[in-house]
Amino acid sequence: MRNIFLTISFIFTVSFLSAQETKKGILNIKKIGFLYNYANEDNILFDDLDYTYATYIYKLQAFYDLGTWKNWGIELIVQPQIQIIKHQLTNIHFVLPSEEDYKNKRTEFTTPKTIRLYAFELGFALKREIFKNLDVRITAGLGVAKIETRTERLAKGFTFIENGSLGLSYKTTKKTALYIGSNIGHVSNLDFKTPNNGYTFLGFEVGITYLLK
User: pLDDT at position 8, please?
Assistant: First the structure.
């Protein structure tokens, strides 16, 4: 219920800001960009021995200026994306004999898979200049997605994605900037379907932005 409440609150906040700020002409696209992210479950924070999971994420980005707060710039980032996931169950006993058709499921889920996930994500970013042309950026994102293949941990179809990032953006010219950062992500469906063990992963990301105005 807490996750559902946060999801509804997030969507409401975005809708409210859009309705208010569009009147002032603030929510015109300020920048466009492209972001590449690589992440997996085998890292210093998450190392699940039951499965392997690596994701390659490609995001198109549109940045909207929401103003400032205590010397921090605030941006809304609209991020349609595709995720290419490499996944395999490595602990055959994760699928219990009590499950229906468990033998076939074990065979299916221990076979390596390439999975595609399509998502639409909204992110809120706080940015602040720490040196000339160098900004620190903190981003929190939430999105809806569709995953095309079922696994032992997540049902096929509708799901959610959640992301948190910390990185640096360096202005290379008056119009362009390069970004590098780290990312923690999670994929689950809020128990709309079973199974819903989900995935949590850590990775790095690089991107480029172009200023339109």
Answer: 42
